[in-house]
Amino acid sequence: MKWVEGWYISYALLGLAAAGLMPILLPLLVGRTSGAANIGFVMAAFSLGGLTSPVWGGLADRFRLHQWLLRGGLICTAAGAAGFPFAPLLSGRIGLALLSGVGLAAASTVANLFIVEVHPQAEWDVRIGWLQTFYGGGQVAGLLLAGMIGQYAPEKGLWIAGGITLVAIPPAVFGMRRPSVVPNLPRPVLRHPAHHAEWPVGSPQHLYHHPNLAALRRLVASFGTPFSLFLIAWLFSFAGSAAFFSFYPVLMQAEYGVSPGRSSAAYALAAALGLILYAPAGKWSASKGPLLILRGALGLRIAAFIAVTVLAFAQVPARGWLAILSFLVVVLAWSLLSVSSTALIAYLSPENEGEGMGIFNAVTAFSGVIGAALGGWVASLWGYGAIPVMGIVGVALGFLMIISKRFDSHPTGQKHEEVPQ
After folding, report:
1. Distance (Å, whole) CA 270 – CA 251
2. CA 388 to CA 288: how far, in whole Å?
3. What pLDDT, in 10s, does the model give residues 103-126?
4. Separation CA 368–CA 387 (nearest Å)
5. Angle 38-39-42 from CA coordinates, rounded to 5°
C-alpha cells in the first residue's frame, strides 16, 4: 500500500508490548507478592518515562539521532520488560519499569518525525492515520494476548513482551528512510489526537510536541487564563482515570471477581470499538464544538465510575459483567476526550500551538504518575474499592472546572473567529 511503510510494523509491535501487554501484566505480577502501594509505585515509574520526551526530542532535532533513538528506545523497553520478573526487590522493579517507560518515550517521540521530515505535507494526514492504526491495532492484539497468559503466567508474558519489542528492531533498521530536514527548523504543528485506547503517556501522537523551559515560564506567567485553567482541569480528571487504569486487572479481580482473562478481553473489545468511534467523534467535535463533546465525555466517565463504585459495594447478580459494561463506557469516552482535548488545546494555546500541545503532553504524563502513585496509597488504606471513588472525585473536579468557565477567548485576549461551544 502506498501510504504504509515497513517500519510501521515496529510501532505495531511496540503498541502490542508496551500499550497492550505491560499495563496488564505489570500490576498482575506485582500484586502477587506485594500490596497496592507497590503496584502504584511501579506503574507511576512506568508513566514517568513520558516526562523524558523533551530530552529525546531535543536530541533528535539537534543531532539527527532519530533512528538511534528508535532502536535504543526499543532495546530499553525490551530490557525493562524481560528483566522485570527477575527483580525480587521493589527498587529493582521500579527501576526496570522506569527503564521501559523511558525507552517507550524515546521510541515514540520520534515516530511522526519519520513522516513529517521525509514526506510532503499533503501526505502527512494519511500516513499518520495509518501509523496510528498500526499502533492501536498492536495494542488491541496485546490486550488479547495478555488476557490469555496474564492470569497464569504474567512473568512469561513480560518475557514475550521483551522478545516482541526486540523483533520490532529489524523493521526499524532496514525499513525506514533517514529524515533529511535541516536541524533547528520550526517543527510543524500536528493536531492529530491519539487514536488508541487510554495509554497516552507512550503515544507517538502525544509525544511529538514537547515543552521547553521558555514555554513553561510563559505558562506560569499566564496563570489564570483559559489555557492554564483547562490544564488544571485536565490534570484532575486524567489523574483520577489513571488511577483506575493503573490497577485495572487487579481491581477487577479483587472487587468484582472478574478474571484477568475476561478483563483483558473486555479492554481489547473496548479499545477496538474506540478505534471505530474516532471518526464520528471528529465530526461531532467539528459540528457541535469540542467543548461540548469534552463535557459530555467527562459526564459519561463520572456516570461510569459511579456505577463501578456502587457495584464494588453492592452484591447484585452478574456483578462482574455489569462492572465490565461500565468499564467499556470509561474506555469509549476516551475517544471523545482525545479528539476534543486536542482541538481545545490548539484553540487555547498562547501564541504557539506546538508549545501548548507540548505542555499538554507533559501534564498528561504527570497526571499518569500522580494517579498511579496516589491510587496505590488510597488502595493501601481503604482497599481497591476506593480507586473508583478516586476516579469520581478526579473526573468530577475537572468536569466542574470545565463547566464553570467559558473558554471563549484566546489567552492573548483576542477572540477567535469560531467559539468552540
Report:
1. 17
2. 30
3. 999 999 999 989 988 888 999 999
4. 14
5. 85
Residues 81, 131: contact at Cβ < 8 Å? no
Question: pLDDT at residue 39 above 80?
Answer: yes
Question: For 417, which DSSP code?
Answer: S
How many CB atoms within 10 Å of residue 149?
Answer: 20
- Please give the C-alpha separations between residue 86 and each of 13, 20, 83, 102, 156, in angstroms, as whole numbers: 23, 21, 6, 19, 11
Taking each helix axis from N to C end, the angle separating 226-246 and 248-256, rounded to the nearest 10 degrees, works out to 60
Q: Which set of grid coordinates corresponds to residue 388?
A: 473508583
Closest CA to 392 of 280, 236, 185: 236
Distance CA 162, CA 76 (A): 9
- Quickly tell me which residue has 504524563 as its cell: 365
Three cell numbers written together for 252: 477487577
Q: 63 to each of 52, 55, 68, 98, how far by Cα in Å?
A: 17, 12, 11, 25
Arithmetic mean of pLDDT, 318-337: 95
Q: For 122-155, write each residue's pLDDT tens digit.
A: 999 999 999 999 999 999 999 999 999 988 899 9
Give Cβ neighbours of residue 68 (< 8 Å, ≥ 6 apart): none
Rounded Cα gap, residues 104 and 201, in angstroms: 9
SS3 346: helix
Q: Helix H segments across 314-412?
A: 319-348, 353-382, 386-404
d(CA 5, CA 369): 34
Q: Using CA atoms, how far apart are residues 211 and 364, in angstroms rounded to an integer?
A: 12
Give the helix/strand (H/E) hosting 77: helix 66-83
| Distance (Å, whole) CA 270 – CA 257 | 19
